[in-house]
Amino acid sequence: MTDSELLVAARAAWVEREGTVYAAPLPDGPPFVLAGAGAAVWLALAEGGTLDEVTRRVADDVGSAAEVVAADVATFVTGLVDAGLVVRRTVPAVPAPSHD
Amino acid sequence: MTDVVDVPLPVRVELAHAAVQVLADDAGVDVLHIKGPAVHPGLRTSAHSGTDVDVIVRPSGVDALMAALAEHGWRIETTFDAGSAFDHAANLFHESWGLLDVHRHYPGMDRDPAHAFDRLWSGRGSVELGHVPCAVPEPLAQSLVLLLHSARTPHTGGDHPDLAPNWTDRTAQDRELIRELAADTGATVALAAATGHLDEYHGDPEAAVWEVFVHGGDRLDEWSARFRAARGPRAKASVAWRSLRVNRYYLGQKLGHSPTRTEVAVESVRRLGAGLRAVARRVVRR
Protein backbone atom coordinates (compact mmCIF):
# COMPACT_ATOMS: atom_id res chain seq x y z
CA MET A 1 0.00 0.00 0.00
CA THR A 2 1.35 3.47 -0.88
CA ASP A 3 0.51 7.09 -0.18
CA SER A 4 1.56 10.34 -1.83
CA GLU A 5 3.63 12.89 0.04
CA LEU A 6 3.64 16.52 -1.05
CA LEU A 7 6.92 18.39 -1.12
CA VAL A 8 8.08 21.81 -2.22
CA ALA A 9 9.99 21.10 -5.44
CA ALA A 10 13.76 21.03 -5.10
CA ARG A 11 13.89 23.50 -7.98
CA ALA A 12 11.59 26.04 -6.41
CA ALA A 13 12.26 29.05 -4.23
CA TRP A 14 9.86 30.77 -1.92
CA VAL A 15 9.68 33.66 0.47
CA GLU A 16 6.94 34.54 2.95
CA ARG A 17 6.36 38.17 3.82
CA GLU A 18 3.54 39.42 6.02
CA GLY A 19 1.30 36.45 5.32
CA THR A 20 1.85 36.39 1.57
CA VAL A 21 3.95 33.69 -0.08
CA TYR A 22 5.99 34.37 -3.21
CA ALA A 23 7.00 31.13 -4.88
CA ALA A 24 8.86 30.54 -8.11
CA PRO A 25 9.97 27.57 -10.21
CA LEU A 26 13.71 27.68 -10.81
CA PRO A 27 15.68 28.73 -12.62
CA ASP A 28 13.34 30.64 -14.94
CA GLY A 29 10.42 31.75 -12.78
CA PRO A 30 8.15 33.58 -12.91
CA PRO A 31 7.27 34.14 -9.25
CA PHE A 32 3.69 33.46 -8.19
CA VAL A 33 1.95 35.38 -5.46
CA LEU A 34 -0.01 33.24 -3.03
CA ALA A 35 -2.20 35.31 -0.75
CA GLY A 36 -4.89 34.41 1.80
CA ALA A 37 -5.96 30.77 1.55
CA GLY A 38 -3.27 30.14 -1.05
CA ALA A 39 -0.60 31.16 1.42
CA ALA A 40 -2.25 28.99 4.09
CA VAL A 41 -2.09 25.94 1.81
CA TRP A 42 1.53 26.65 0.91
CA LEU A 43 2.65 27.06 4.50
CA ALA A 44 0.79 23.89 5.49
CA LEU A 45 2.38 22.06 2.58
CA ALA A 46 5.88 23.35 3.30
CA GLU A 47 5.85 21.26 6.48
CA GLY A 48 5.49 18.18 4.28
CA GLY A 49 2.98 15.37 4.55
CA THR A 50 0.18 13.81 2.59
CA LEU A 51 -2.71 15.69 1.05
CA ASP A 52 -4.90 14.62 3.97
CA GLU A 53 -2.38 16.00 6.46
CA VAL A 54 -2.04 19.25 4.56
CA THR A 55 -5.80 19.55 4.36
CA ARG A 56 -6.15 19.06 8.12
CA ARG A 57 -3.55 21.76 8.78
CA VAL A 58 -5.32 24.19 6.48
CA ALA A 59 -8.66 23.40 8.09
CA ASP A 60 -7.21 24.04 11.54
CA ASP A 61 -5.65 27.25 10.30
CA VAL A 62 -8.85 28.67 8.83
CA GLY A 63 -11.17 27.21 11.49
CA SER A 64 -13.20 24.93 9.20
CA ALA A 65 -13.87 21.23 9.01
CA ALA A 66 -11.43 19.30 6.80
CA GLU A 67 -14.30 18.08 4.60
CA VAL A 68 -15.26 21.68 3.86
CA VAL A 69 -11.85 22.71 2.52
CA ALA A 70 -10.67 19.38 1.09
CA ALA A 71 -11.80 19.89 -2.51
CA ASP A 72 -10.39 23.41 -2.73
CA VAL A 73 -7.09 22.36 -1.20
CA ALA A 74 -6.80 19.45 -3.63
CA THR A 75 -7.48 21.70 -6.60
CA PHE A 76 -5.00 24.29 -5.43
CA VAL A 77 -2.31 21.68 -4.81
CA THR A 78 -2.81 20.34 -8.34
CA GLY A 79 -2.19 23.86 -9.62
CA LEU A 80 1.01 24.08 -7.61
CA VAL A 81 2.17 20.76 -9.03
CA ASP A 82 1.38 21.88 -12.58
CA ALA A 83 3.34 25.10 -11.99
CA GLY A 84 6.40 23.08 -10.98
CA LEU A 85 6.34 24.38 -7.45
CA VAL A 86 5.34 21.17 -5.70
CA VAL A 87 6.04 17.50 -6.34
CA ARG A 88 4.20 14.40 -5.25
CA ARG A 89 6.45 11.69 -3.91
CA THR A 90 5.07 8.23 -3.62
CA VAL A 91 6.13 6.67 -0.35
CA PRO A 92 5.28 3.34 1.23
CA ALA A 93 2.55 3.74 3.79
CA VAL A 94 3.50 2.95 7.36
CA PRO A 95 2.01 -0.45 8.20
CA ALA A 96 -0.62 -0.49 10.91
CA PRO A 97 0.83 -1.57 14.23
CA SER A 98 0.38 -5.22 15.03
CA HIS A 99 -1.74 -6.15 18.06
CA ASP A 100 -0.56 -9.74 18.34
CA MET B 1 -3.32 30.86 -7.79
CA THR B 2 -2.40 34.46 -8.43
CA ASP B 3 -0.05 35.09 -11.32
CA VAL B 4 2.92 37.45 -11.41
CA VAL B 5 1.90 40.75 -9.88
CA ASP B 6 3.64 43.22 -7.66
CA VAL B 7 6.40 41.14 -6.22
CA PRO B 8 8.19 43.45 -3.75
CA LEU B 9 11.74 44.21 -4.85
CA PRO B 10 13.45 42.66 -1.79
CA VAL B 11 11.47 39.45 -2.37
CA ARG B 12 12.29 39.42 -6.06
CA VAL B 13 15.99 39.90 -5.28
CA GLU B 14 15.98 37.03 -2.79
CA LEU B 15 14.28 34.71 -5.27
CA ALA B 16 16.72 35.82 -7.95
CA HIS B 17 19.67 34.80 -5.76
CA ALA B 18 18.12 31.33 -5.58
CA ALA B 19 17.62 31.23 -9.35
CA VAL B 20 21.25 32.13 -9.99
CA GLN B 21 22.44 29.52 -7.48
CA VAL B 22 20.46 26.79 -9.25
CA LEU B 23 21.89 27.82 -12.62
CA ALA B 24 25.41 27.84 -11.19
CA ASP B 25 24.87 24.39 -9.66
CA ASP B 26 23.59 23.06 -12.99
CA ALA B 27 26.64 24.50 -14.75
CA GLY B 28 29.02 23.14 -12.09
CA VAL B 29 30.31 26.62 -11.32
CA ASP B 30 31.19 27.99 -7.89
CA VAL B 31 29.63 31.34 -7.00
CA LEU B 32 29.62 33.38 -3.83
CA HIS B 33 26.62 35.56 -3.09
CA ILE B 34 27.45 39.00 -1.77
CA LYS B 35 25.54 42.11 -0.72
CA GLY B 36 21.81 42.49 -0.19
CA PRO B 37 20.09 39.58 1.53
CA ALA B 38 23.27 37.48 1.33
CA VAL B 39 24.94 39.72 3.90
CA HIS B 40 25.03 38.59 7.52
CA PRO B 41 22.29 40.58 9.32
CA GLY B 42 24.70 42.09 11.82
CA LEU B 43 26.78 43.61 9.05
CA ARG B 44 23.91 45.03 7.12
CA THR B 45 22.74 48.60 7.24
CA SER B 46 19.13 49.53 6.65
CA ALA B 47 20.00 50.55 3.12
CA HIS B 48 21.10 47.01 2.39
CA SER B 49 17.93 45.33 1.21
CA GLY B 50 19.48 45.37 -2.24
CA THR B 51 18.10 46.19 -5.64
CA ASP B 52 19.96 43.56 -7.60
CA VAL B 53 21.81 40.29 -7.19
CA ASP B 54 25.58 40.30 -6.82
CA VAL B 55 27.71 37.20 -7.13
CA ILE B 56 31.43 36.58 -7.45
CA VAL B 57 32.15 33.69 -9.77
CA ARG B 58 35.21 31.46 -9.74
CA PRO B 59 37.24 32.92 -12.63
CA SER B 60 37.59 29.58 -14.40
CA GLY B 61 33.80 29.27 -14.45
CA VAL B 62 32.92 32.67 -15.86
CA ASP B 63 32.29 31.50 -19.41
CA ALA B 64 30.19 28.53 -18.31
CA LEU B 65 28.06 30.66 -16.00
CA MET B 66 27.53 33.37 -18.61
CA ALA B 67 26.48 30.72 -21.14
CA ALA B 68 24.04 29.18 -18.66
CA LEU B 69 22.57 32.59 -17.85
CA ALA B 70 22.12 33.41 -21.53
CA GLU B 71 20.36 30.09 -22.12
CA HIS B 72 17.87 30.97 -19.41
CA GLY B 73 16.81 34.41 -20.50
CA TRP B 74 19.41 36.63 -18.86
CA ARG B 75 20.25 39.49 -21.24
CA ILE B 76 23.59 41.26 -20.98
CA GLU B 77 23.17 44.96 -20.26
CA THR B 78 26.85 45.81 -19.82
CA THR B 79 29.80 43.59 -20.55
CA PHE B 80 32.70 43.01 -18.16
CA ASP B 81 34.92 45.59 -19.82
CA ALA B 82 32.25 48.22 -20.24
CA GLY B 83 30.81 48.60 -16.78
CA SER B 84 33.31 50.21 -14.45
CA ALA B 85 36.84 51.39 -13.96
CA PHE B 86 37.77 47.92 -12.75
CA ASP B 87 36.32 45.89 -15.64
CA HIS B 88 35.06 43.60 -12.96
CA ALA B 89 31.37 42.93 -13.48
CA ALA B 90 28.87 42.20 -16.19
CA ASN B 91 25.35 43.45 -15.64
CA LEU B 92 22.44 41.30 -16.78
CA PHE B 93 18.66 41.56 -16.76
CA HIS B 94 15.95 38.88 -16.59
CA GLU B 95 12.22 39.42 -17.04
CA SER B 96 11.40 37.42 -13.92
CA TRP B 97 14.31 38.35 -11.69
CA GLY B 98 15.52 41.82 -12.56
CA LEU B 99 19.18 42.80 -12.40
CA LEU B 100 22.27 40.71 -11.73
CA ASP B 101 25.92 41.69 -11.39
CA VAL B 102 28.34 38.87 -12.15
CA HIS B 103 31.75 39.73 -10.73
CA ARG B 104 34.61 37.94 -12.43
CA HIS B 105 36.84 39.51 -9.79
CA TYR B 106 36.21 41.94 -7.00
CA PRO B 107 37.59 45.49 -7.16
CA GLY B 108 40.53 45.66 -4.81
CA MET B 109 41.07 41.91 -4.94
CA ASP B 110 41.88 41.93 -8.61
CA ARG B 111 45.61 41.22 -8.64
CA ASP B 112 45.10 37.44 -8.58
CA PRO B 113 41.37 36.81 -8.93
CA ALA B 114 41.69 33.02 -8.86
CA HIS B 115 43.61 33.08 -5.58
CA ALA B 116 41.26 35.67 -4.08
CA PHE B 117 38.26 33.53 -4.97
CA ASP B 118 39.93 30.44 -3.54
CA ARG B 119 40.58 32.31 -0.31
CA LEU B 120 36.97 33.46 -0.02
CA TRP B 121 35.64 30.06 -1.06
CA SER B 122 37.76 28.14 1.44
CA GLY B 123 36.09 29.92 4.34
CA ARG B 124 32.62 30.10 2.87
CA GLY B 125 29.39 29.65 4.72
CA SER B 126 25.87 29.07 3.50
CA VAL B 127 22.68 31.04 3.81
CA GLU B 128 19.21 30.09 2.62
CA LEU B 129 17.82 32.57 0.13
CA GLY B 130 14.33 31.70 -1.01
CA HIS B 131 14.89 28.43 0.92
CA VAL B 132 17.77 27.54 -1.43
CA PRO B 133 21.24 27.14 0.13
CA CYS B 134 23.55 29.78 -1.31
CA ALA B 135 27.29 29.99 -0.69
CA VAL B 136 28.46 33.21 0.96
CA PRO B 137 31.82 34.45 2.24
CA GLU B 138 32.39 34.10 5.97
CA PRO B 139 31.33 37.20 7.97
CA LEU B 140 34.84 38.70 8.17
CA ALA B 141 35.25 38.28 4.43
CA GLN B 142 31.81 39.82 3.94
CA SER B 143 33.03 42.82 5.88
CA LEU B 144 36.05 43.13 3.61
CA VAL B 145 33.84 42.92 0.52
CA LEU B 146 31.52 45.60 1.89
CA LEU B 147 34.43 47.83 2.88
CA LEU B 148 36.00 47.57 -0.57
CA HIS B 149 32.65 48.43 -2.08
CA SER B 150 32.27 51.43 0.19
CA ALA B 151 35.67 52.74 -0.93
CA ARG B 152 34.43 53.20 -4.49
CA THR B 153 30.93 54.35 -3.64
CA PRO B 154 30.47 58.09 -3.30
CA HIS B 155 28.88 59.04 -0.01
CA THR B 156 28.14 62.50 1.24
CA GLY B 157 27.83 63.53 4.85
CA GLY B 158 30.18 61.60 7.10
CA ASP B 159 31.39 58.05 6.92
CA HIS B 160 29.91 55.51 4.57
CA PRO B 161 27.19 53.60 6.49
CA ASP B 162 28.99 50.30 5.91
CA LEU B 163 32.09 51.50 7.74
CA ALA B 164 30.75 51.24 11.30
CA PRO B 165 29.37 47.67 11.31
CA ASN B 166 32.21 46.29 9.26
CA TRP B 167 35.20 48.16 10.66
CA THR B 168 34.80 50.82 13.32
CA ASP B 169 32.51 48.79 15.57
CA ARG B 170 34.42 45.56 15.08
CA THR B 171 36.98 44.46 17.66
CA ALA B 172 40.69 45.10 17.20
CA GLN B 173 41.14 41.38 16.67
CA ASP B 174 38.50 41.34 13.92
CA ARG B 175 40.12 44.32 12.21
CA GLU B 176 43.46 42.53 12.28
CA LEU B 177 41.89 39.44 10.73
CA ILE B 178 40.32 41.60 8.03
CA ARG B 179 43.73 43.19 7.37
CA GLU B 180 45.25 39.72 7.05
CA LEU B 181 42.53 38.66 4.64
CA ALA B 182 43.07 41.84 2.65
CA ALA B 183 46.81 41.15 2.47
CA ASP B 184 46.16 37.60 1.29
CA THR B 185 43.76 38.74 -1.42
CA GLY B 186 45.83 41.70 -2.61
CA ALA B 187 43.41 44.21 -1.15
CA THR B 188 45.64 46.07 1.31
CA VAL B 189 45.58 49.34 -0.60
CA ALA B 190 41.86 49.12 -1.27
CA LEU B 191 41.17 48.44 2.40
CA ALA B 192 43.28 51.45 3.29
CA ALA B 193 41.10 53.50 0.94
CA ALA B 194 37.99 52.24 2.68
CA THR B 195 39.26 52.92 6.19
CA GLY B 196 40.80 56.34 5.62
CA HIS B 197 44.45 55.31 5.44
CA LEU B 198 45.08 55.71 1.74
CA ASP B 199 47.63 58.45 2.32
CA GLU B 200 49.99 55.80 3.70
CA TYR B 201 50.25 54.44 0.15
CA HIS B 202 50.81 57.73 -1.64
CA GLY B 203 52.89 57.12 -4.75
CA ASP B 204 51.76 53.51 -5.10
CA PRO B 205 50.30 53.11 -8.62
CA GLU B 206 47.39 51.10 -7.24
CA ALA B 207 46.59 53.85 -4.76
CA ALA B 208 46.13 56.31 -7.62
CA VAL B 209 42.99 54.51 -8.77
CA TRP B 210 41.47 54.59 -5.30
CA GLU B 211 42.42 58.23 -4.79
CA VAL B 212 40.08 59.11 -7.63
CA PHE B 213 37.21 57.48 -5.77
CA VAL B 214 38.13 58.74 -2.32
CA HIS B 215 39.08 62.30 -3.21
CA GLY B 216 37.07 62.71 -6.41
CA GLY B 217 38.17 63.30 -9.96
CA ASP B 218 36.99 63.37 -13.54
CA ARG B 219 37.12 60.67 -16.17
CA LEU B 220 40.58 61.75 -17.23
CA ASP B 221 41.82 61.29 -13.66
CA GLU B 222 40.24 57.88 -13.58
CA TRP B 223 41.70 56.69 -16.85
CA SER B 224 45.11 58.15 -16.01
CA ALA B 225 45.09 56.30 -12.70
CA ARG B 226 44.03 53.10 -14.38
CA PHE B 227 46.86 53.50 -16.87
CA ARG B 228 49.41 53.97 -14.08
CA ALA B 229 48.01 51.02 -12.11
CA ALA B 230 47.98 48.64 -15.09
CA ARG B 231 50.81 46.14 -14.79
CA GLY B 232 52.90 45.64 -17.94
CA PRO B 233 52.81 47.07 -21.46
CA ARG B 234 49.93 44.89 -22.63
CA ALA B 235 47.69 45.94 -19.74
CA LYS B 236 48.60 49.59 -20.23
CA ALA B 237 47.85 49.37 -23.95
CA SER B 238 44.50 47.78 -23.15
CA VAL B 239 43.58 50.62 -20.79
CA ALA B 240 44.61 53.22 -23.36
CA TRP B 241 42.52 51.60 -26.07
CA ARG B 242 39.46 51.15 -23.89
CA SER B 243 39.63 54.75 -22.69
CA LEU B 244 38.68 55.81 -26.21
CA ARG B 245 36.16 53.08 -26.91
CA VAL B 246 32.48 53.94 -26.87
CA ASN B 247 30.30 52.09 -24.40
CA ARG B 248 27.42 51.10 -26.67
CA TYR B 249 25.15 50.29 -23.74
CA TYR B 250 25.43 53.70 -22.10
CA LEU B 251 25.17 55.43 -25.48
CA GLY B 252 22.02 53.45 -26.15
CA GLN B 253 20.60 54.49 -22.78
CA LYS B 254 21.35 58.13 -23.61
CA LEU B 255 19.85 57.93 -27.09
CA GLY B 256 16.87 55.82 -26.13
CA HIS B 257 17.62 53.28 -28.85
CA SER B 258 20.34 50.93 -29.99
CA PRO B 259 23.04 53.17 -31.50
CA THR B 260 23.80 53.01 -35.19
CA ARG B 261 27.35 52.74 -36.51
CA THR B 262 27.25 56.43 -37.40
CA GLU B 263 26.14 57.37 -33.89
CA VAL B 264 28.93 55.27 -32.42
CA ALA B 265 31.45 56.95 -34.73
CA VAL B 266 30.19 60.42 -33.78
CA GLU B 267 30.42 59.51 -30.10
CA SER B 268 33.98 58.24 -30.61
CA VAL B 269 35.00 61.60 -32.01
CA ARG B 270 33.18 63.44 -29.22
CA ARG B 271 34.86 61.26 -26.62
CA LEU B 272 38.29 61.83 -28.11
CA GLY B 273 37.60 65.57 -28.24
CA ALA B 274 36.49 65.61 -24.61
CA GLY B 275 39.66 63.84 -23.61
CA LEU B 276 41.85 66.27 -25.50
CA ARG B 277 40.02 69.26 -23.99
CA ALA B 278 40.52 67.83 -20.50
CA VAL B 279 44.23 67.47 -21.21
CA ALA B 280 44.33 71.03 -22.55
CA ARG B 281 42.66 72.40 -19.40
CA ARG B 282 45.31 70.68 -17.29
CA VAL B 283 48.06 72.23 -19.40
CA VAL B 284 46.53 75.71 -19.09
CA ARG B 285 46.12 75.34 -15.30
CA ARG B 286 49.80 74.46 -15.02
Question: Top keywords for this entry?
Answer:
heterodimer, A: 100 residues, alpha+beta, Outer Surface Protein A, domain 3, three-stranded antiparallel sheet, two-stranded antiparallel sheet, 3 helices, 39% helix, B: 286 residues, five-stranded mixed sheet, 7 strands, 51% helix, globular
List strands and helices in order, with pairings.
The complex is a heterodimer of chains A (100) and B (286).
Chain A: E1 2-8, E2 12-17, E3 20-25, E4 32-34, H1 37-46, H2 51-62, H3 66-82, E5 86-92
Antiparallel strand pairs in A: 1-5, 2-3, 3-4
Helix pairs in contact in A: 1-2, 2-3
Chain B: H1 9-27, E1 31-34, E2 53-57, H2 62-71, E3 75-78, E4 89-94, E5 98-103, H3 113-122, E6 125-129, E7 132-136, H4 139-151, H5 163-168, H6 172-184, H7 188-195, H8 205-215, H9 219-229, H10 233-244, H11 248-255, H12 261-285
Parallel strand pairs in B: 2-5
Antiparallel strand pairs in B: 1-2, 3-4, 4-5, 6-7
Q: In a few lines, what is going on in this structure?
A:
The complex is a heterodimer of chains A (100) and B (286). Chain A is an alpha+beta fold. Chain A has helices spanning 37-46, 51-62, 66-82, and strands at 2-8, 12-17, 20-25, 32-34, 86-92.
Task: Describe this entry's structure for a reader.
The complex is a heterodimer of chains A (100) and B (286). The longest helix of chain A is centred in the last third of the chain and has 17 residues, at 66-82. The model of chain A has no long low-confidence stretch (mean pLDDT 91). Chain A is globular, with a radius of gyration of 15 Å. Chain A is built from three helices and five strands, in the order ββββαααβ. Chain A has one domain: Alpha-Beta Complex (Outer Surface Protein A, domain 3), CATH 3.90.930. Chain A is an alpha+beta fold. Chain A has helices spanning 37-46, 51-62, 66-82; strands at 2-8, 12-17, 20-25, 32-34, 86-92. A three-stranded antiparallel beta sheet of chain A has the order 2-3-4. In chain A, helix 1 (37-46) crosses helix 2 (51-62) and helix 2 packs across helix 3 (66-82). Chain B has a domain at 247-286. The termini of chain B are far apart. Chain B has twelve helices and seven strands. With 286 residues, chain B is an alpha+beta fold. In chain B, helix 4 crosses helix 7 and helix 7 (188-195) runs parallel beside helix 8 (205-215). Chain B has a five-stranded mixed beta sheet with strand order 1-2-5-4-3, sandwiched between helices. The mean pLDDT of chain B is 85. Chain A binds chain B through residues 8, 11, 13-15, 17, 22, 24, 26-35, 38, 76, 79-80, 83, and chain B through 1-8, 11-12, 14-15, 18-20, 22-23, 26, 72-73, 94-97, 129-132.
